[in-house]
Design a protein that fits this description.
Layout (H helix, E strand, L loop, with lengths): L9 E11 L4 E11 L4 E3 L5 E8 L6 E9 L2 H5 L6 E2 L3 E2 L6 E2 L10 E10 L2 E3 L5 E5 L13 E2 L18 E9 L3 E11 L1 E6 L2 E2 L3 E2 L10 E8 L7 E10 L22 E10 L4 E5 L5 E3 L4 E5 L3 E5 L18 E2 L1 E2 L6 E4 L5 E7 L3 E4 L5 E17 L6 E7 L1 E2 L5 E2 L9 E5 L6 E3 L6 E9 L10 E8 L5 E5 L2 H16 L24 H8 L3 H13 L27 H13 L3 H21 E2 L2 E2 L28 H22 L6 H19 E2 L4 E2 L4 H9 L8 H15 L8 H4 L2 H7 L3 H9 L6 H6 L30 H10 L2 E2 L8 E4 L9 E8 L2 E10 L2 E18 L7 E3 L2 E2 L7 E4 L2 E15 L1
Parallel strand pairs: 1-4, 3-11, 18-27, 24-34, 44-47
Antiparallel strand pairs: 1-2, 4-8, 5-6, 5-7, 5-9, 9-10, 9-11, 12-20, 12-26, 13-19, 13-22, 14-18, 14-20, 15-16, 15-19, 17-28, 20-21, 22-25, 23-24, 28-37, 29-30, 30-35, 30-36, 30-37, 31-34, 31-36, 32-33, 38-45, 39-40, 41-42, 43-44, 45-46, 46-47, 47-51, 48-49, 48-51, 50-51
Helix pairs in contact: 3-15, 4-5, 4-6, 5-6, 6-7, 7-8, 9-10, 12-13
GO molecular function: hydrolase activity
Enzyme class: hydrolase
Catalytic activity: Hydrolysis of terminal non-reducing alpha-L-rhamnose residues in alpha-L-rhamnosides
Amino acid sequence: MKKTLLHTFILIASLSFSLAQAQNKISMTNLQCEMLNNPEGIDVVQPRLSWQIKADVNDVKQTAYQIMVASTLENLKANKADLWDSGKVTSNESVNIVYKGKKLGDRQNAFWKVIVWTNKGEIKSDETAHFSIGILTYADWKSTRWIGYEKLSKDDSVSQYSRLSARYLRKAIDLKKQVKSAKVYIMGMGLYELYINGNKIGDQVLAPVPTDYTKNVKYNVFDVTAQLKEGRNMLGTILGNGRYFAMRQDYKPYKIKSFGFPKMALQLFVEYTDGSNEVIRTDETWKLTTDGPILANNEYDGEEYDARKEMKGWNTTNFDDSTWINARYVQEPGGFYEAQMTPNMKIMAEVKPISIKATPRGTYILDMGQNMVGWLQLKVKGKSGDQITLKFAESLQEDGSLYIANLRDAKTTDIYTLKGGGEEIWEPRFVFHGFRFVEISGFPNKPTLDNFIGKVVYDDIKTTGTFESSDATMNQIFKNAWWGISGNYKGMPIDCPQRNERQPWLGDRTTGAYGESFLFDNQTLYAKWLDDIKYSQTQDGGLPDVAPAFWRYYGDNVTWPGTYITVADMLYQQFGDAEVIKKQYPSMKKWMTYMEENYLKNDLMNKDKYGDWCVPPESLELIRSKDPARLTDGQLLSSAFYCQLLGIMQKFAKIANAESDIAHYEDLATRIKKAFNAKYLNTATNSYANNTVTANVLPLAFGMVPENLKEKVFQNMVHEVEVTKNGHISTGVIGTQFLMRTLTNFGRGDLAYKLASNKTYPSWGYMVENGATTIWELWNGNTADPTMNSQNHVMLLGDLMIWYYENMAGIKSNPENPGFKEIIMKPDFNAGLTFVNASYESIHGLIKSHWKKNKNGLEWNITIPANTSAVVYLPTTDSKKITVNKAKLEKIGIKYKTEGNQQIVSLPSGVYTINLK
């Protein structure tokens, strides 16, 4: 279990300084440590350190750094780097610097700071950052037993609609000395809340993140020094079901995994001021009850809470637990124990409802105004025994009642029973809902908007991107994308948040993860998900369509499991993360070999499962098209995609020091291209297969078209989009992943813009015009068969968000220098927009691109982070028409050149206003 590999754990310090140019002095302020996850308890012994330099002057380049790491804060402040002193290292690298100091052991504290030298001077600060090592070996948990209660209570059931009450546990501890420091390490399956002396520890919800618990189990770590006192203390936990106690037991058991009853393992390490230590662990002395107020909690069906059964003070020392039983020792989950290196979920925002209306049925319909993911907090007064039912849905039927057919058999209902005696405020703990509308029944008086607050729940990760343009439809699509992406971040990227599915489908994120990375700091989320995929791999190399494999779907296709490789490529491109590739490469190679040996026939990949999923159908009532002219050959899809993956694997092999693999990948790709063109390319019509847009866009995007035919094939594809389909989308999940960028890269950004701004079916704008506030699962999600029309999916975004940023805003990381160390700024100014204002918080710092056309030409405001540079493309051959910060281009001493009909300008870091007449 011990981790020696590098992990995607990165500490980021933000160094801010200003330069008084007249005196040529440097001053520093505001050294901050921004953690990508909980710094208390990481399980890697060589974390990577990163910092950002924030400057108010241009052309700042780091020339050297010195990292100092100490075991105590006092040592660090005294410049006693007893763990690691890197010395002065000549380097311009400021991200992913590998710790190379003394070996870090269990629960080791580490305090660090960095000195930076730049071409503008030296940067020092007295501020520091901190991390600590977790529990590195399985043996260190050996004295800690898993405890729980593996029986049903009287109102529990195991069925298609399983019910299981929450488990409440408590343990009194006596601390006979003054506490110097204390940390708690907890694994609570499936979900937990932790309390000390009546206070909840942490602001996380729905913790920990889900995994296949037979493969790996995540533990969370909290510093609880401030919560403990000398004398008697009380530890308390509530265990919910989560993904551990499966919601649909005895329902398709061949498909749906279940792991058992909720259980817990906990260790509390206490250090006293006299230097002695004590460890408190879970054992049979803990007390337990299932007779608490949470009667049932089920992710699909909701939470039932009876406030009359509340146990006041149950998690404090002043409580009589004589009716509670002793917890039982139970079998461990089976997976090995890992520190959770990605944030937990959290209540990230609140939404106030916009209307509440009475119905003829005596109920009320609450409208949140936004399709959101989370739950509803209610405030109410009533009699003991009054029962309020909250039923959640995404939309309404024509008669004003909830539309629930698309939820399938998910009940999506919370029930609250009042205790009476005054105002009561309640919200659930162990469920989430995807909803805009709530039907309220049983409310003891006439409810008002003030009785309800929507709680928005997703992973505690930062929004990193903003986008605004001259097109209102595109702006609303961006908002819809933000809401859809955030709502489906649930410790893993799921497909939808509302119906009886909510699964981490690989195919939804093949390219989607790339686009999402511009909106959210999703690096650790996707690094964790790659581990989920790796752990789900079969011994012979197969990968599932869903990972963690909560559903046993192993279809052996290419386009879904290939996400394993494309997401790793995204992490490298966007975050400069080469270590994740080194870590995952052996499993990726194993899958590529597995597919080659089992399904490559005559140099074509002879296996596909889903086709170009969700092509706009010929009838608005259909889920899937039945017209062969709209469908793309599955062998074409899998062969083209596998060929593209071979190209990525060549890059990965070099990064992973597996250069001996490259020749095989190159040879195989060459053979597949030849066989692919021999079978599918029609040189008479300059088209592939049956001439769907997807059939043509894939070989164009993947570089498979013979050089002399590229333009002809592209023009043929343009005709299909522009004329045959009347400027509308005709691609499904696969084709849409490459459509927008390919159109723009071949010179038809205007056509891509038309697709992006359309308001008629099928288009993203059609969703907006029909009231969508997230992205639908289907292009015709308002009319199709209700069994499959989730109104909050992200898979049909394809490469749209990438296109927004890279092609419209002009914010792209150079693949040759990834992680935005060098930025390519190349907007398509002639696509149809008149202004774009976008920003992206990269790992190196904030990038801004704000351009607008006016009567005098083009004005473009650019921000390039310190210690990076940008290659800026301007649409003119005449350099004399360009001014930078009001100075003529040729007079400011920067490199530029003419290439085709563009000026290419190399800019160092800084803030610039570029004007083009």
